[in-house]
Amino acid sequence: MGYTHFDKVSGINGIGVGASGHEIPVIGPSGNILAFGTQGSTYFVDANAGSNSKDGLSWDNAFLTMAKAFSVIASGDTIYFRGKIREQLTAPVQVFDVTIIGAGNRPRHADSTPDGGQDAANTWTTPASGATTAPLCKVLQQGWRFANILFAGPTDSDCVQLYRDAGAGDAERDAGQAEFINCRFASGYNGINDPGGCFGVLVQGCRFEALTNFCILGVGNIGAGQGSWLIENNHFYGFTNGVKICGLGCRIKGNTFTDGGTPNTTVVCNTVSNGGTSKDNFVVDNYFQTATANFNTPDVVGNATDVWNNTSIDGETGFIGREVGQPA
After folding, report:
1. From CA 114, how far away is CA 90, in angstroms rounded?
2. Contact indicator for 177, 75 with CB cutoff of 8 Å
3. Residue 299, class by beta-carbon neighbours within 10 Å (0-12 exposed, 13-18 middle, 19+ buried)?
4. Cβ–Cβ < 8 Å for 240, 262
5. What CA–CA distance (Å, rounded) separates 176 from 220?
6. How many domains are there within the chain?
7. Are 179 and 200 in contact (CB under 8 A)?
8. Which run of H or of E encompasses 68?
9. With contact defined as beta carbons under 8 Å apart, do 35 and 13 qualify?
10. Which distant-in-sequence residues (6+ apart) come within 8 Å of 276 by Cβ?
């Protein structure tokens, strides 16, 4: 299937952009065009040739750093970036529904060897030296979207942390309704971490690999867990631990999971994390390579009220087929 180009006159803003500045919608895992309306301003970050003295409103006038873009964005804005962002940032408060889009056709390393490989690619990683205990991006408000980005995270923290507290009124911080689309979490400690219990997060068409702690980690907090998350059509490969959430009414569908780093002790998929109510999840149509786990704890764990119907490998019998019912 070829790509169709749209411009802003049509009111459609795609989630991939090449060096030429054409907006190109990305085809989603189900064949749908992941294209979104623009309601705010659009800014550009070029880690190779940008300048923070410019206005950031085009590739020719792009900012150099994501921090500069964060200092000017408002709710509903979009940021395109290319090159290798080496920053650990906290998103601005009271700024909602921001979209950050990596340049290039696929999320890949923005390496300068061979020459030119950095020009239309994107990487968000840590500074060349400095802290390893802060997330690449800590999100504080609802509706942030990350698309077509390669994350290479810190050794002791998260690629993206979704923050939620018990604040009231304008003091509330809640990163619920976040979206991760067509991203690659290529290394680091945790991929996506939700220590506060955010609602309605979408993780679609992403690849998680080589993470040393968890691909997706969430616990219950402030009386809630990971409510109504959609984790769909992702590939979990070569990780230490896969998905562990305090799932409440979540849908985990169409994903592929390898066995993880240590098959007898690893977490592959667990909807029963601690700290909140966990029930009524649909874990269906996934493929599990659970050769030694036998589709049971600690690798695969569910609630009595969950619906599980997946394809797996049973290491004890050599059986490959459907596993129906909540795992033991």
Report:
1. 32
2. no
3. buried
4. yes
5. 13
6. 1
7. no
8. helix 66-72
9. yes
10. 197, 219, 220, 221, 223, 224, 225, 246, 248
Contacts for 183 with CB less than 8 Å, ≥ 6 apart? 102, 107, 146, 147, 148, 149, 150, 151, 206, 207
In this structure, are residues 107 and 124 in contact, taking their beta carbons and an 8 Å threshold?
Answer: no
In this predicted model, what pLDDT tens digit does every residue of 285-325 receive, in sequence order?
Answer: 999 886 544 567 778 889 999 999 988 875 445 556 777 77
Q: Is residue 24 part of a domain?
A: yes
Residue 1 domain-assigned (yes or no):
no
* 248 strand-pairing partners: 227, 279
Domain CATH for 109:
2.160.20
pTM, two decimals, is 0.88
CA–CA dist 303, 298 (Å, integer): 13
Q: Look up residue 211 and give its amino acid.
A: L
For residue 245, the enclosing domain spans 8-324
Distance CA 5, CA 35 (A): 11
Report pLDDT digits (tens) over 235-257.
999 889 999 999 999 999 999 99
Distance CA 56, CA 60 (A): 8
* 276, 197 contact by CB (below 8 A): yes
Is position 3 within any domain?
Answer: no
Let me know if residue 161 belongs to a domain: yes
